């Protein structure tokens, strides 16, 4: 169960981590605490699954990368092995199992179309993959969602 402090910490973390030599000490000041407590709670929140990731977001397009949303239809018995392979590709993000005809969705960032097609070809040939949709992005719409935990 989340404490009031945990919720306050998560609210502040959503806005970003300070860029400094001691970001968690700086964060502690924002939440009226100390660095050790903040680090302990962050570890707890990560271990318990409340916090999935802390890290930067890069403008992939400015760095020369293009993204695509990929939908796979995977035979359920092969789901785990397909997910493990898909997750090995460095450009894979946001990999989710879903209900429906296409039951595995992920995004893939690549520096060029040839690499994207090679990766998608390899994934399409995996045992258990019945179909693949490559829904390449043409225009980026960035949505910044922050939840106010009370």
UniProtKB/TrEMBL annotation:
Belongs to the Ahb/Nir family. It is an enzyme of class 4 (lyase). SUPFAM superfamilies: Winged helix' DNA-binding domain. Residues 62-142 form the Siroheme decarboxylase AsnC-like ligand binding domain. Keywords: Lyase. It catalyses: siroheme + 2 H(+) = 12,18-didecarboxysiroheme + 2 CO2. Its EC number is 4.1.1.111. This is siroheme decarboxylase. Pathway: Porphyrin-containing compound metabolism. Residues 6-52 form the Siroheme decarboxylase NirL-like HTH domain.
């Amino acid at each position: 169960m989340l404490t009031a402090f945990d919720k306050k910490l998560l609210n502040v973390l959503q806005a970003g981590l300070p860029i400094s030599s001691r970001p968690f000490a700086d964060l502690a000041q924002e939440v009226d605490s100390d660095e050790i407590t903040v680090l302990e709670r962050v570890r707890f929140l990560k271990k318990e699954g409340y916090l999935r990731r802390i890290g930067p977001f890069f403008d992939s397009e400015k760095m020369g990368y293009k993204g695509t949303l990929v939908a796979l239809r995977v035979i359920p018995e092969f789901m785990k092995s397909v997910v493990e392979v898909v997750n090995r590709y460095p450009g894979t993000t946001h990999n989710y199992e879903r209900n429906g005809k296409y039951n595995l969705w992920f995004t893939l960032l690549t520096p060029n179309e040839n690499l994207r097609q090679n990766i998608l070809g390899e994934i399409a040939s995996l045992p258990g993959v019945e179909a693949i949709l490559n829904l390449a992005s043409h225009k980026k719409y960035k949505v910044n969602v922050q939840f106010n935990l009370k």
